[in-house]
Amino acid sequence: MKLQVIRQRKLWWAISSAVILAGIVAMIISWQRYGAPLRPSLDFVGGTRLQFELDCPKVNNCEQPVDIAAAREVLAVEGLGGSTIQAITDRTDKQVGVTIRTSPLSGEQRTRLQSALSEKLGGFDITKTQIDTVGPVIGQQLLSSGLIALLVAFVGITIYLSLRFQLDYAVFSLVALLHDVLITTGIFAILGLVFGTEVDSLFIVALLTIVGFSVNDTVVIYDRIRETSTLTPERHINDIVDEAVNQTLTRSINTTLTTLLSLISIVLFGGETLKNFALALIIGFAAGAYSSIFIASTLLALWRERTGKAYAASTASPVMGDGIPHSDKA
Prior knowledge:
Blueprint: H1 9-34, H2 42-45, E1 47-53, H3 68-77, E2 84-89, E3 95-102, H4 107-121, E4 130-134, H5 136-164, H6 167-195, H7 201-231, H8 237-269, H9 272-306
Antiparallel strand pairs: 1-3, 1-4, 2-3
Helix pairs in contact: 1-6, 3-4, 5-6, 5-7, 6-7, 6-9, 7-8, 7-9, 8-9
């Protein structure tokens, strides 16, 4: 069965628009709540994150779930009432620990807080205790460096595609890349609001990886479009795009699926630090495959049609009953 991307292009655009719009709304809400479009981790805002889990092998230490209210009282006494606190649950959804995000703490403050929490909540397992501190200056530097790297990647890709193909190819490839970035960030904004998912410096790395993966798929389709246009210049761009997409569809699906399988295994069985990174790649790679097939190619066809470049050669443009121009050749 031949996929007709041109005939249903408004549907593809509507799907993308709906997802992006939902993400933008989530980012606006996130900005009002956290002061950023995504819920930032310590990597970007600076501060101290403390994670404590009860020592359950210790007798009578885990009979009752962790009392979050008691933990908040301890924080208030220590002058850290503005801190955020989340419960850590085990496989049975029982609260067995806490994760606390607060302003930067000195070594003495961390020790005092840990002792106070241990007295209130129970003994902690020192092997599972995690304490991370990032200064606000370093956090801002990480964010700035990441955004600059992303911008440089966009500029470099645009220049490369302009030289290899033509400027309009590069422009719509860039639109597809922005589509992928917006969908990934939008979904993470939603996850941040619903599940408290935070983004760290690895998220920037994930976006850069997504951009590289997505443009590779787009280049394959664009290369087939250019090749077919050269061989059959009398054909309409809509026919050429449909054929190019169908010729490369199996390759795109297989490449994406094999990559996603590896990433899904990381999400399911990998460490905590890699799960959000792998999740971002899953979302971005799926969006990248979608945009290469349904966004970049269809926008290029529309532009060529509207600017009178639907045919590589100057031939008549017959129109069939569906209202979409086609060439005489199938």
